[in-house]
Every structure is written in C-alpha cells, then in structure tokens.
Amino acid sequence: MTSPAEASRDEPFLVLGIETSCDETAAAVVANGSAVLSSVVSSQVDLHARFGGVVPELASRAHVQLLTPVVAEVLVESGLEGDGIDAVAATVGPGLVGALLVGISAAKALALVWGVPFIGVNHMEGHLYAAFLEQPDLELPTVVLLVSGGHTMIVLMEGHGRYRLLGATVDDAVGEAYDKVARFLGLGYPGGPAIDRLAREGDPEAIRFPRPMLAEGYDFSFSGLKTAVVNHGRNNPDLNVADVAASFQAAAVDVLVAKARRAAADTGATSICIGGGVAANSLLRKRIVEACEQDGIAAFVPSRELCTDNAAMIAAAAWWRYQADGATPMDAGAVPNLRLA
Ligand code: KG4
Ligand code: ZN
C-alpha cells in the first residue's frame, strides 16, 4: 500500500474521489491534487424538484443506483479502469447520513479490492480545495468565503490543512436563503440558479432589503433577509418577481462581499477565494473580482462547475489530507455534522 511519503514521489499520485453528501452523485480521478483526469457529476435535481427540495431517502436510493455507473465512467474516461489508482477518497460529512454512507461504503470496498488507502474528506474542505484545482500555486494566507446550501463561512487558510474559522452564519446558510426565497417566489428548486437568472432582468435597487449584520465582524445572518422578502411579497401581491429576485440578491451579495473584504484587510491576506454552490452566482463572482481589484489583492474564482458539488474537489482535498494525516481508518463512518477543523 502507498504511504503518505509516496504521495509526493515523482510519478503522479492518482486519487479516485467520490461525492454523495447531498443530491449529486459524483466521481473523479485527480492527479496530485490538481490535474483532473476525469470528472462526472450526475445530478438528481429532476428527482427532487417536484418535492421542492432534497428528499433524503430518495437521494440515498438514487446514489445506490447511480454511483457504480458514474465510477465506471470516470475510470474509463481516465483510461485507467482501476489500474493505477493510488487511493480512494469519499466525503464523510457534513451531509445526509444515508447519502454519505453510500459513497463511503463504495470507496472503502474499492480501496480494499485494490489494496490502496481510503481517505475520508470533509465536504467543506473539498469546496475549499476547488480553487487549487485551477490555481495549484495559490498564495497563502488566503481568505476563503465558503457559501453553500448548508454553510456560510469565512475561513483564513494559513497553510494546507491549517484553517482559522473567522465567521459563520448564526442562522440560515446563504444558499438556503436563496432556495427558500425562490420557493416563495414560485421559482422552483434549486432556487439559487433560478434567482441568479431572473435577477438579470430585475432592478437590484427596486426594494431596499436589509443587509443583516453588515457593519459587524465576520458572522452572517440570512433568516431576517428571507423573512423581509416574504413579508414584502405578502404586502405587495402584484410584485415584480424579477425586481424582488434582483433586490434580494443585491442584499445577500453586499453582505458576503463586505465581510470577505473586511476579513482580508484585517488579516493581511493577499487574496480572496470563493467556494461552494453559491460561488457559482454571477453577481457574487463579479463583485468579488471588483472588490479585490480595488483592494489590490488577488481573487480566485473557480469555474462554476467546480463551485457546485463535484468529486474533483474531494479528490484534491484528499491528496493534501493524505500527506498530512495518512489513510483514514476503515471503521470511520459518516459524520452528518462534521465541522471544518
Ligand atoms: O455546494 P452545493 O452544490 O451543495 C451543498 O454543499 O449545499 O450548494 C448548493 C447551493 C444551493 O442552495 C443552490 O441554490 C446554490 O448553492 N446555488 C446558487 C447558484 N448555483 C447554486 N446560488 C446562487 N446562484 C447560483 N448560480
Ligand atoms: Zn457542497
């Protein structure tokens, strides 16, 4: 079996990554934490759309059906078919317990059959490492704004595996606010991309929604903003939905950008990175780049498909984790509320 020291040998170290924490069944083969040989994401969006959100039991069952063909596809695409994989990684948390267990069990089985290490990965650490897939030499320390359906955090990344959590949401995650507002506006699921699209046709200054906790620290609160949108809708039955979408998005993005920027200024970080599904948002991407230009620091904005859930980011994070900690014990299970260390 390969040792952590061998992960830094001359020939590329190939990790098969598996991601099943929520409603995307994904696998990828990544060399040395940065070169993506193949990556497949099979979305279950159509399955959950009619329920207006992810149904955990259905997600687990769909992962069972989809994971084997998805893994087979990435192995064929990478030209390996199992030969030459040096480690198998899977997301161990945070996420839906039944969904996580499907990926973990498959990864452990493959690791045992191939006689290679199993590496358990924190999903949020995966989102954080998405930027390294396109910018392997990304300079540290960097401030990372992690924005997904379940989390909203500002992390100071001082070194590989060395993070300081500067702030987080005290209530809803920003992606959750997008999804709930979209549902209220009748835009369906998932809400983030729908609001992103519709907001382009609306006036972001039409309604002045609150910017919660804008002036204080690095923590966030999005539940009041969501309630403000709902109250506005109830009091204005003839509302222009595009204006509401644009105004909500302007408020949410204002807060995200202001806090990331403040964190970079206070810590002396020379760059800001974004990650997580909401980092696919057009306005957030544009505003982060503009803010960094103004502040004379670098912006790292991964391509959209690396922001939303995928397994390339899991394989990339696994490579760094393996060098720091070695293999994950085979009795490690799913940790639905796993925190970023
Ligand atoms: O990281 P992710 O794919 O899954 C989780 O780990 O949660 O993030 C999903 C979240 C959802 O709330 C979705 O609505 C949001 O990311 N999202 C977006 C966009 N694309 C996905 N939010 C705003 N704008 C987008 N373009
Ligand atoms: Zn995610």
β-strand number: 10
Are there runs of 5+ residues with pLDDT below 50, and where?
Answer: none
Average pLDDT for all residues: 94
The small molecules bound here are: 5'-O-[(R)-(carboxyoxy)(hydroxy)phosphoryl]adenosine, zinc ion
Largest sheet: 5 strands, mixed
N- and C-termini, Cα separation: 27 Å
Largest sheet strand order? 3-2-1-4-5
Q: So how many helices?
A: 11
Radius of gyration: 20 Å
* Strand content range: 15-25%
Structural shape:
globular
Kindly describe this structure.
With 341 residues, the chain is an alpha/beta fold. The protein is built from eleven helices and ten strands. The chain has a five-stranded mixed sheet, sandwiched between helices. A five-stranded mixed sheet has the order 8-7-6-9-10, sandwiched between helices. Strand 7 and strand 8 form a beta hairpin. The model has no long low-confidence stretch (mean pLDDT 94). The protein binds 5'-O-[(R)-(carboxyoxy)(hydroxy)phosphoryl]adenosine and zinc ion. 5'-O-[(R)-(carboxyoxy)(hydroxy)phosphoryl]adenosine (KG4) binds next to helix 5 and helix 6.
